[in-house]
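Researcher: Re-running this chain for the archive, since the previous output was lost when a drive failed. Same request as before.
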Amino acid sequence: MLVWLADHLTQYFTGFGVVQYITVRAVMAALTSLGISLIFGPWMIRRLTYLQIGQSVRSDGPASHLVKTGTPTMGGVLILFSIFTSTLLWSDLLNPYVWIVLLTTFLFGIIGWVDDYRKVIKNNSQGILAKWKYFWQSLVGIIVAVILYKIGGIGVENELIVPFFKDIALPLGMFYIVLTYFVIVGSSNAVNLTDGLDGLAIMPIVLIGSALGLIGYLVGHIEFAEYLHIPYVPGAGEVGVFCAALVGAGMGFLWFNTYPAQIFMGDVGSLSLGAALGVVAVITRHEIVFFIMSGIFVMEAVSVMMQVASFKLTGRRIFRMAPIHHHFELKGWPEPRVIVRFWIITAMLVLLGLVTLKLR
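Model: Regenerated structure tokens:
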């Protein structure tokens, strides 16, 4: 919105031309969403507390979590409000990738909101039945995948880029839709599983979102793309503005979500933010790098799959409790130790992912 306004005002004062730069708008998007989160955060916490929209705690979980019962949840609404407001203000609204990312985030947010609503408001511990939740996630994921496939045509936008090799790009054809579906839906559910401790999920989201924003800027800039031997995707730079808004909103939310948390994001936040990261990774053609950077999310999801498979096949559990962050808690790690160590691992994986941009 402000891009159009600045373009109009440039004829009266050339200084407004600075708004055309993606880097400037990304910084402003981050600051805007951060400010919105910090300003409205206390109000939302008070409002959710008044409405008694509180977190329920697993009865079979660590005993230390019982004190979390009643902590306001569905704080993901604050994150999404901050992201959407900032993105609509600072991004180029004529760019189709902006709307695809916003649509994906919104629709997965709706799925998460309904799930939270049924759990917290209707006191239905199951929320949306797993099969129906997966159905709606799959439907949205397939629709988004088809849209991106149609936009990409037969160019680099629909090729699989292999890191460490500058000349390897595998044409995906229709398999692009399958890959995109699994990246988006898988990322959404992996982040959802990780969101079990105070601040555990939001900081990796911020770190990975920052890296994806940088990658988006580089692949959308023809000179940088050629220099780094990465795919040039026209228009992809605008997702950097969205990622910056996500980073700002995430940092603002972490102000209240850090241990001991005053508010939780709920499924409305985790499902939508996970899907947002996934679709950005697809747009920027760095799915494999995204997989590397999301090691913590992958580990959490795999731990659940291994636990379920082992128990069904042998009647035994591999971990004391899944997802794996609860396993470490039950081994005696204090919650802050688990959180910070997982943050450190994510930071290292993100740096490793960024290194692949040059090692080609």
